[in-house]
Design a protein that fits this description.
single chain, 206 residues, mainly alpha
């Protein structure tokens, strides 16, 4: 199996897991729970569509069962947010729901648009260092979009734990991948100048 098979299956099952939580805790009339299901459930579908039409080559590598278990374990940490939300019967105020939905929406745009831009550019011009478009001022704008997506999910739980888990995964998994990517891109002569005028992860900040 490939790495994407483990990751894609987990993301696709998220919607069913959240629906099962709603049934288990009898939160049928909890609008916040349904909004969470709509957001995280749709993200799982979108991720699988992205994998189908413009897949990230990093996830195309062959993977062992050990990798699959580690991937599933890490991704399952994201399920703590809906559990905290639904088990505690959280009802977020309208303005807070609007904030979380807005974070998710902006994150989806940045994440998927950047991945499509990268996929298309490399397909038309293989081996090119991408320094324009969404990547002009941030070298990992797709990761920033994903951060906004998971911030929207985590904040809906109205608990500190999902946010702590998210930033723990960013430090332990995302940032090392970004640093490794920078080291790989350093082979391009123009990368030094690009690095000076762009941020690693968060636009205009980091």
């Amino acid at each position: 199996m490939k790495q994407k098979h483990f990751i894609n299956s987990h993301k696709l099952l998220t919607g069913f897991f959240v629906l099962a939580l709603i049934a288990l805790y009898r939160q049928w009339d909890n609008s916040t729970a349904w909004i969470y299901l709509a957001l995280h459930g749709s993200y799982g579908i979108l991720w699988n569509l992205k994998s189908l039409f413009f897949a990230d080559k990093a996830w195309e590598q062959r993977a062992s069962l050990f990798f699959g278990l580690v991937a599933w374990g890490g991704l399952t940490l994201y399920w703590i947010a809906p559990w905290l939300l639904i088990a505690r019967g959280v009802q977020a105020p309208p303005w807070y729901l609007a904030l979380c939905i807005s974070l998710y929406t902006l994150g989806v745009f940045l994440h998927f648009s950047a991945d499509m831009y990268k996929h298309t550019t490399l397909r038309l011009q293989p081996g090119q260092l991408i320094t324009e478009g969404l990547f002009a001022r941030c070298r990992n704008i797709n990761y920033f979009g994903e951060l906004l997506i998971y911030l929207g999910f985590g904040m809906l739980a109205r608990h500190w734990l999902p946010i702590a888990i998210l930033f723990g995964l960013v430090l332990a998994g995302w940032l090392p991948r970004m640093i490794q990517k920078d080291r790989s891109l350093a082979r391009y002569p123009e990368f030094a100048g690009y690095k000076q005028r762009s941020t690693l992860f968060i636009p205009f900040i980091l």
